[in-house]
Design a protein that fits this description.
Layout: H1 2-63, H2 70-77, H3 82-103, H4 115-125, H5 128-131, E1 165-166, H6 199-207, E2 208-209, E3 216-221, H7 222-235, E4 259-260, E5 272-273, H8 294-297, E6 303-304, H9 313-316, H10 320-326, E7 343-344, E8 347-348, H11 387-410, H12 416-444, H13 446-452, H14 469-473, E9 486-487, E10 503-504, H15 513-517, H16 522-530, E11 532-534, E12 542-543, H17 544-547, H18 561-571, H19 577-583, H20 592-598, H21 602-612, H22 620-626, H23 637-652, H24 666-674, H25 677-684, E13 689-690, E14 705-706, E15 737-744, E16 747-754, E17 758-761, E18 765-769, E19 772-773, E20 779-782, E21 799-803, E22 806-810, E23 815-817, E24 824-826, H26 832-865, E25 870-872, E26 875-877, H27 882-889, H28 891-903
Parallel strand pairs: 2-12
Antiparallel strand pairs: 1-6, 3-11, 4-5, 7-8, 9-10, 13-14, 15-16, 16-18, 17-20, 18-19, 21-22, 23-24, 25-26
Helix pairs in contact: 1-3, 1-4, 6-18, 6-21, 7-11, 11-12, 11-16, 11-25, 12-13, 12-23, 13-23, 26-27
Length: 915
């Protein structure tokens, strides 16, 4: 009996366990399905919200492409490439979804956020493809030429320094909610017991200075300032988010973080300046994070659309699509496109942007809109911002084509792609030399340069060259305080040009027509060489052209570069001034007296403390800008540290740095070292005399030298001997592709590539064997981007049509393509079919009206004739059917009847009509 009882108990326990497992598993399956359905629902809502905002922005840009506000000009100049745009959209969807999920009640149970869930969110939002490591080529070219995207420079970390990746964080971000909201998002939020000051108030009280009050630099020319801006555009571009239309709101929400105006700026118009947050980056959250801790899950990171490397992205772009649009595929081998409509005394101008892009650039005064000069097309969309920047872009376009022509003549056996890549490689090396040898030491001063940069000791694969957030958003913006309010144009004797007076910057923004119609590049270059930069003085930081008239063309409105910089630092979650001083080993400044030791100008220091109330609250850009300059430098201790650390990382973490032994031969390195910015000016302009050091301001003629005495590189070091033999002669060119010859371990090789829009079929790398090449040359076949209707590159509003080497997105009338060339938006006009329908409808209505009128007339006539007597002479004839009688009697009878009717009011309104 006891045995049976024990068995029964055991059986019950076993069944209970089985039942419990079944219940738990069923609960898990049910929760998993519920969770997945919930995540899908949240993501779908986020997609709709983000896409609606993007569509509204595209519509606004189309409506105002000819008359743009200052804030729109800023966004036009930073329009993201398609890849950057897609990443921004996916990241905004991801962030919105995670915020929504984190705020949902009840709170998700433990284990709700797993790697699978984060993968699902990344996949459904569109982020996942951009989080996967790139596929790196394994050919002999891997050590010879850079990828245009900067990927695979570091073999262990292939995304370091690549385009469309997140800016690096040297300190954890400081967001108001620990996740995404910038400091100052909530105006009543207190920091160390005090609210943050409005950035526009900081501009008014500390930064702004009248144009006539600036101090000029007695050592350095305007070229120093323009080179800094140009190099900044080479290594960083943080596009603005397109997930919200921020032009008409003064409320902080979504991607909008408007700059609120203080009471002193009160005006009848909006009480804020529009501000769109920087585009977010994908994949910045740790996979093992718990959703409940938002500061760990996905603290917002910003994307850098350009490569971090000093690689002349300003000339060649940072994406395959941009590179393709800049290369000349029909002219001489290896060249870049030039302007087909205008020349500068026989020299090339940059080409123009395509008509599909918004017309961000200003027309010449008094010119009809049809004759406006478009913006210049270059590797960076900001090339037309100011004349000096456009001139520098033009110089490097000419330099590439000059080098390509010389290298082709030296090596006639080179393919077009080899000519292009070798010229690009030399231009990139010259950018590195001019920046690290000539520019950075003047900015940091000799002591700080030695401390933070020092001599080159070779490539270090453990150094991450990715541009840091604080460098791009704060430290390297020190140059804004060195911008002169005037753009000076000089004649051949380096005096003020009689026909081209100095321009206020407000009259020069986005005005490429001034280069085309007002003397070309040479007068601008002379002004950059022979006129001083503005000196960075604490009480004279930024002139009115930047704080009151930034990007103001012919439309009302204004923009303030100083306020933009301060707001952008908060947008990016940069910690305060003291946190960065501590990172650099500098003492924290706790009191006003300690701040006075870093900022000798007591008036400026007192104003800053009156605004911020606590030293930890000071924005890093402002704090670094007002510090006393180091000896022989144009920066203070903090910015010298941050800029120096970044420049060292860019050099030491670049596997293809020009001094790294495998990149160039010793003879080539010696020639490159001889070259200079002054030589580039001599070779690509009409100037015959230049300073030996383009960054030193001097007087003509005593401080200038003839171009004949400026050293240049001898391209003989690039001559390549290619011995043809019966085994491995150079093959024929590949249609829509090309090859590059290289050697690896003594073996001759050919590496093939296809143009953008084509894919390679066959063996990529051919090796010379005993019997000839070890394979047949591959072929390049068109990629049908429209093959999968569910995953075309076009927006669902457009129809995808494949073309040779590309694709087209087509819209149905009256919809037109937006500036992204992928989305159809309403043009605001009636479709052509509607006009045809209106005309046909009007004709049909007219015909029907005529027929109806005839019927009515006949009916009314018959009715009248049936009641009226017909008068013949003096006798009255009894009434007869009106229609027949009228036809028989003729027109005169009708007239008589009508007259009689008019004389007999008893008949009322009955009027006989004859047809």
């Amino acid at each position: 009996m006891r045995t049976l009882a024990a068995a029964a108990v055991t059986l019950v326990v076993v069944w209970a366990g089985v039942l419990l497992l079944f219940i738990l598993r069923g609960r898990g399956l049910l929760w998993g399905k519920t969770r997945n359905a919930h995540v899908h629902s949240v993501l779908e809502a986020s997609v709709r919200t983000v896409d609606r905002a993007i569509y509204a922005s595209l519509e606004r840009n189309l409506r105002k492409r000819d008359v743009a506000s200052p804030s729109q000009l800023l966004s036009f100049s930073k329009l993201p490439e398609p890849t950057s745009r897609a990443i921004s959209r996916a990241a905004e969807i991801t962030e919105a979804s995670i915020q929504a999920l984190g705020l949902m009640q009840p709170l998700p149970p433990p284990g709700f956020v797993s790697e699978d869930l984060l993968n699902m969110i990344a996949n459904l939002s569109g982020c996942l493809p951009y989080m996967l490591p790139p596929k790196c080529p394994n050919t002999c070219l891997a050590d010879k030429y850079r990828l245009i995207t900067g990927a695979c420079n570091n073999r262990d970390h292939p995304t370091w320094g690549a385009s469309n990746t997140a800016l690096a964080r040297w300190l954890p971000p400081a967001y108001e909610d620990g996740f995404s909201q910038p400091r100052g998002w909530n105006p009543v939020f207190l920091y160390h017991g005090f609210p943050l000051p409005l950035v526009r108030e900081v501009t008014r009280q500390v930064i702004r200075v009248p144009n006539e009050a600036v101090t000029e630099d007695d050592q350095y020319s305007d070229f120093l300032t323009v080179w800094g801006q140009y190099i900044d555009h080479d290594i960083a571009l943080t596009p603005q988010s397109t997930s919200a239309d921020c032009q008409l709101t003064c409320e902080s929400r979504s991607a909008c973080f408007p700059i609120q105006l203080p009471a002193a700026d009160a005006s009848p118009g909006p009480q804020c300046l529009p501000f769109s947050r920087s585009a977010a980056a994908c994949g910045s959250w740790p996979r093992s994070a718990l959703l409940a801790n938002l500061s760990v899950v996905a603290a917002r990171q910003q994307v850098n659309a350009f490569t971090s490397f000093l690689d002349a992205s300003t000339v060649y772009g940072s994406s395959a699509a941009a590179e393709r649009s800049l290369r000349d595929w029909t002219g001489a081998p290896g060249r870049l496109r030039v302007n087909a409509r205008h020349h500068d005394s026989g020299r090339a101008f940059l080409p123009f942007t395509p008509p599909s892009k918004p017309a961000a650039c200003a027309p010449a005064p008094g010119s009809p809109n049809q004759t406006r000069v478009p913006c210049f097309l270059a590797g960076d969309g900001r090339a037309s911002e100011v004349p000096g920047l456009a001139a520098l872009h033009t110089l490097w376009l000419r330099e590439h084509n000059r080098l390509a022509a010389a290298l082709e003549a030296l090596n006639p056996h080179w393919s077009a792609d080899t000519v292009y890549q070798e010229a690009r490689k030399v231009v990139g090396a010259l950018h590195q030399i001019i920046t690290l040898r000539d520019y950075v030491p003047r900015i940091l001063g000799p002591d700080a340069f030695q401390q933070y940069v020092g001599p080159y000791e070779g490539y270090d694969s453990t150094v991450n060259p990715t541009i840091s957030n604080v460098f791009s958003t704060a430290a390297f913006r020190f140059g804004h305080a060195t911008i002169h309010p005037l753009a000076r144009r000089l004649d051949a004797t380096f005096e003020d040009h009689p026909d081209l007076p100095p321009l206020l910057l407000g009259d020069a923004f986005f005005s490429p027509w001034r280069l085309i119609q007002e003397g070309g590049v040479d007068p601008i270059l002379r002004g950059l060489l022979a006129r001083p930069a503005k000196l960075q003085v604490p009480e004279q930081l930024m002139n009115e052209e930047l704080t009151e008239r930034l990007f103001v063309l012919s439309t009302p409105g204004s923009l303030d570069l100083a306020s933009l910089n301060l707001q952008r630092g908060r947008d990016h979650g940069l910690p305060g001034y003291n946190a960065w001083r501590e990172l650099c080993g500098l003492p924290r400044l706790q009191t006003l007296a300690e701040l006075h030791r870093a900022v000798a100008n007591r008036t400026v220091a007192d104003r800053i403390m009156a605004l911020y109330r606590h030293t930890d609250n000071i924005d890093v850009w402002l704090g670094g800008l007002v510090e006393d300059l180091l000896p022989g430098a144009r920066t203070g201790p903090l910015f010298a540290c941050l800029i120096g650390k970044q420049m060292k990382a860019l050099r030491d973490g670049d596997r293809l740095w020009w001094e790294h032994t495998p990149v160039f031969t010793e003879a080539q390195r010696q020639q490159l070292w001889k070259h200079s910015l002054s030589r580039v000016i001599c070779d690509n302009s009409g100037l015959t005399h230049v300073p030996r050091d383009a960054f030193r301001v001097g007087r003509f003629p005593q401080d200038f030298e003839s171009c004949e005495h400026i050293p240049s590189l001898d391209l003989e070091a690039w001559r390549e001997t290619f011995l043809q033999d019966d085994r491995c002669s150079l093959p024929d060119r590949v249609e829509n592709g090309d090859f590059v010859h290289c050697e690896d371990s003594g073996k001759r090789m050919l590496v093939y590539s296809c143009r953008h829009g084509y894919e390679l079929h066959g063996q990529e790398q051919l090796t010379c064997a005993q019997d000839g090449w070890d394979a047949q040359p591959p072929v390049c076949k068109d990629v049908n981007e429209c093959a999968d209707p569910a995953h075309t590159p076009c927006h669902p509003s457009a129809r995808c049509r494949n073309t040779k080497g590309s694709f087209q997105c087509l819209c149905t009338d009256p919809y037109v393509l937006a500036e992204d060339a992928r989305t159809c938006i309403d043009s605001g006009r009636l479709p052509q079919a509607s006009w045809v329908s209106l005309v046909l409808g009007a004709l049909l209505v007219s015909v029907l009206a005529g027929v109806t009128w005839m019927v009515i007339c006949r009916w009314m006539h018959c009715a009248a004739e049936s009641t009226l007597p017909v008068i013949e002479g003096d006798a009255k004839v009894p009434a007869q059917p009106g229609c027949r009688m009228c036809r028989e009697a003729g027109t005169s009878m009708c007239s008589a009847a009508a007259l009689d009717l008019e004389q007999e009011p008893a008949y009322g309104s009955q009027i006989p009509l004859c047809m």
